[in-house]
Design a protein that fits this description.
- It is a single chain.
- This protein is an alpha/beta fold.
- The chain has two domains: 106 residues, Urease, subunit C, domain 1; 310 residues, Metal-dependent hydrolases (TIM Barrel, Alpha-Beta Barrel), CATH 3.20.20.
- Helices cover 28% and strands 23% of the residues.
- The strands form four sheets. Strands 1, 2, 3, 4, 15, 16, 17, 18 and 19 form a nine-stranded mixed β-sheet that branches. Strands 8-9-12-13-14 form a five-stranded parallel β-sheet.
- Helix 4 packs across helix 6.
- The protein is globular, with a radius of gyration of 21 Å.
């Protein structure tokens, strides 16, 4: 679809007082009261909707190539756009693994072909995610995909020597290593629940918090030693927040993310053995949730990342211990962040924009995203009805999978429109010159 000039009337950038915003040739061309639309432009009456920079997800599983029964680049991109995202980072644990220039370029081409969001491939750190030999990091970084985030997500780079070598190798490319912090000797593949009273009572193999915290502690020291960039994926414990806070206070170049589900859901939900709540890392107690919220509020945790993990029903519908790890997240992320952070007063709208767009764009070295809402900047935007709520119905989500932990839950904030370089990838219930704007 080609870019259409658009005048957004009565919008609130970053939740500030109402104004108009004009989008021309893919950029913000004007901000002010009573702007005039160019001939042929769409005029959208937004009725006080909030405008934020389109979100950027550092942690998305699109499953293609290899598991197109669970998700494709097309279906995942649609879910992202509907959730207000303009860019997603596609994780490397596909089949084949994205550990070569050819595979990451294939993923990037699929993303461009769909065109709903910018799809940035994540390259594997090790060949086949096996943690034994470095993958083709240089080739992926220099490829047309220009990979700047590398991760073995789903597997920890547990070998300290390999981790050091990877950090050193990534440094000249200004790339970041996104670590899945899980010591396999303390929490192996059988561990599926937070280690504590509930896991013991339910007879589920426990995953202790220290399995995450000890790897983060090791890695921030390695990042300091090498002078390289480290990013910690899906932080889930209060102890991890303290380790990251300690490292940042000493000038270590470390960033961190938290998932929406770890901001809202707790281990108590496991008592029904519903595999939809099985996730890696596991849901933690309420005290960890509160620490994560505080860490996100004060900037110790830099970003919200969905860890969108779609699964086919035949992989998820098992006894709890045998079910696949993971949850959907792209379309529910905004609502969860608003409920846990904005409505609690821990973040304002500018803070939501920072944690969901500005910071992740900076960490992923994504140009054109996470930019200020100023004249001349790319028109990568999301338009939100802040006072509306919606009920999550798995059947109505764009993903090919249905494994959302928020089914039946009412969430705040409805994404009315998403713009990618001035083009409406989503436009719902917004009127333009009296007619629905096509998406």
């Amino acid at each position: 679809m080609t870019t259409r000039d658009t005048l957004l009337r009565d919008v609130r950038p970053l939740g500030e007082p109402s104004t108009d915003m004009l989008l021309v040739d893919g950029r913000i061309a004007g901000i002010g009261a009573a702007l005039t639309a160019p001939e042929g432009a769409a005029v959208i009456e937004a009725d006080g909707a909030v405008v934020l920079p389109a979100f950027v997800d550092l942690h998305t599983h699109l499953r293609e190539p290899g598991r197109e029964d669970a998700e494709t680049v097309e279906s995942g991109s649609a879910a992202a756009a509907l959730g207000g995202y303009g860019c997603v980072h596609a994780m490397a644990n596909t089949n084949p693994v994205a550990d070569t220039a050819e595979i990451v370029e294939q993923v990037a081409r699929l993303g461009r072909r769909v065109g709903l969001v910018d799809v940035r491939p994540v390259g594997a750190v090790s060949k086949g995610l096996a943690g034994e030999q470095l993958a083709e990091i240089g080739n992926m970084a220099r490829s047309d995909a220009a990979v700047r985030v590398f991760s073995d997500d789903g597997h920890c780079v547990s070998d300290a020597r390999l981790m050091r070598r990877a950090l050193e190798y990534l440094k000249p490319f200004d790339a970041v290593l996104a670590q899945h912090a899980q010591d396999p000797r303390l929490a192996d593949a059988s561990c599926c629940a937070h280690e504590g009273e509930i896991s013991g009572r339910l007879g589920l193999a426990g995953w202790p918090s220290v399995a995450e915290e000890s790897i983060i502690a090791r890695d921030v020291m390695l990042a300091q030693h090498t002078g390289s960039r480290l990013h910690v994926c899906h932080v889930s414990t209060a102890g991890s927040v303290e380790v990251i806070r300690w490292a940042k206070a000493r000038g270590v170049d470390v960033t961190a993310e938290v998932t929406p589900h770890h901001l809202l859901l707790t281990v108590d939900l496991l008592t029904g053995y519903d595999p939809v709540y099985k996730v890696n890392p596991p849901l933690r107690p309420a005290e960890d949730v509160h620490a994560l919220r505080a860490g996100l509020a004060d900037g110790t945790i830099d970003a919200v990342a969905t860890d969108h993990a779609p699964h086919a029903a035949h992989d998820k519908d098992h006894a709890f211990g045998d079910a696949a790890f993971g949850m959907l997240g792209l379309q529910t992320a905004l609502g969860v962040v608003l409920e846990s952070m904005l409505h609690t007063g821990l973040l304002d709208w500018a803070g939501v924009a920072d944690r969901m767009s500005i910071a992740p764009a900076r960490i992923g070295r994504v140009s054109g995203h996470g930019r200020p809402l100023r004249i001349g900047e790319p028109a990568n935007l999301t338009v939100i009805a802040p006072d509306e709520r919606w009920v999550v119905d798995p059947a109505n989500l764009a993903s090919l999978s249905r494994n959302t932990p928020f089914a039946g839950r009412s969430l705040p904030g409805v994404v009315l429109a998403t713009f990618l370089r001035g083009r409406a990838t989503v436009c719902d219930r917004l009127l333009a010159t009296g007619e629905q704007v096509p998406a």
